[in-house]
Amino acid sequence: MYMGPPISESFDVHDIPNAGRGVVVTQDVPARTVLLDSGGPHAHVIFRQYRKEVCAHCFEYDRGRTLPVRDGTTGKVFCSEMCQVKWTGHQGLLAVQAWRQLHSFTQSRSKFVTDVNSIPPSTSRPSKFVVDAGWAKADDARLRTQNATRKPKPSPSQAIDPDILSLLLSAIVFYHNHRQEWDSEVLALAMDDEPYRSQEDLDQHCASYLQLATLLPSDLVPSCTSHVCRTIVEAGSHNAFGIRAGGEDGEEYLGYAVYPSASYFNHSCAPNLVKRRVGRAWEFAAGRDVRQGEQLCITYLGGEEKGLRLAERRRRLRDAWGFECMCERCQEEQGGHGVS
């Protein structure tokens, strides 16, 4: 089975010096040529505060208005009945049952909802050793639960994070429904083995995994593993795309998603590739004529790089993505030469 980046007649994926893997065109490409359609995400989350305003299938957002089609059993809303039908078909009946059980669970514990990402970290970022230990502890707790005579229920006073629960469940559903694509596409991504902002963040992910393991339909439980939950967080840390109103980077931040086929484009402060969200997929097109052998790059700064000075661009990229930008524009501005 092939395991790796997308295959195209127009580009190849290569190792790029000091930049990991990158996408290089194999022929001259005229401006506005569409080079990649990502397809739908392999996992995603719409943030809790927007779930009544964003279509669960196509991610349509009507400027804060509640969408017309609502499913009170799953907590999902849709811009049309057609999108509801498509979402149900895409998920499958077992997954729909799982979303119903998760919605019931979060509703019954609404007093204990937390959002670890909105809380300033009180601890440092956990090391790989601490991350491994945390997940091993979670697996031990799950094993004790499985071996117990009576299956315990989640503690009614335990904190829950609906956003983490939704992200993990979306990954579990994709893994269950599309195991081959998970193995060949998600596992091929570069992983971040220290993806958690704080010890509290790690603890809440482990707790969410255990909560899901106790409430999901029995046929879905075997797909609810620590490996699946860890993988989507580690893959998404540096590969996720923001879901924004209108599909533009500068718009309101509604959630994020993992698109493996779109995760091989490196950053440039003078990108030659333009991306736009079309429903639940991303479309990537040449922003100018691109010559054979050039690397295809997008911006990780949402268009703001156009008005930012070198030091500020590098600071933002270093803080968010952990690298020192050495793209052609940055090198020219610092008096250097060459292309990243």
Q: Can you walk me through this structure?
A:
This protein has 340 residues and is α+β, with helices and mostly antiparallel strands. It has helices at 81-91, 93-108, 128-147, 162-177, 179-186, 199-215, 226-239, 310-321, 328-333; strands at 11-16, 20-25, 34-37, 43-46, 69-71, 76-78, 240-244, 253-258, 266-267, 273-278, 281-286, 295-298. A hairpin with a 3-residue loop joins strand 1 (11-16) and strand 2. The model has no long low-confidence stretch (mean pLDDT 91).
Low-confidence stretches: none
What structural category do the secondary elements indicate?
alpha+beta
The overall average pLDDT, rounded, is: 91
Number of strands: 12
* Spatial extent as radius of gyration: 21 Å
Main sheet properties: 4 strands, mixed
Q: What is the share of helical residues?
A: 25-40%
Classify the oligomer.
single chain
* Individual helix count: 9
What's the short story on this structure?
This protein has 340 residues and is an alpha+beta fold.
Give descriptors for this structure.
340 residues, four-stranded mixed beta sheet, alpha+beta, 35% helix, 12 strands, three-stranded antiparallel beta sheet, 16% strand, single chain
Break the fold down into its secondary structure elements and pairings.
Layout: E1 11-16, E2 20-25, E3 34-37, E4 43-46, E5 69-71, E6 76-78, H1 81-91, H2 93-108, H3 128-147, H4 162-177, H5 179-186, H6 199-215, H7 226-239, E7 240-244, E8 253-258, E9 266-267, E10 273-278, E11 281-286, E12 295-298, H8 310-321, H9 328-333
Parallel strand pairs: 9-12
Antiparallel strand pairs: 1-2, 2-12, 3-11, 4-8, 5-6, 7-8, 10-11
Helix pairs in contact: 2-4, 3-6, 4-5, 4-6, 4-7
InterPro entries: H3K4_H4K5_MeTrfase, SET_dom, SET_dom_sf
Domain SET: 9-301
Protein name: SET domain-containing protein
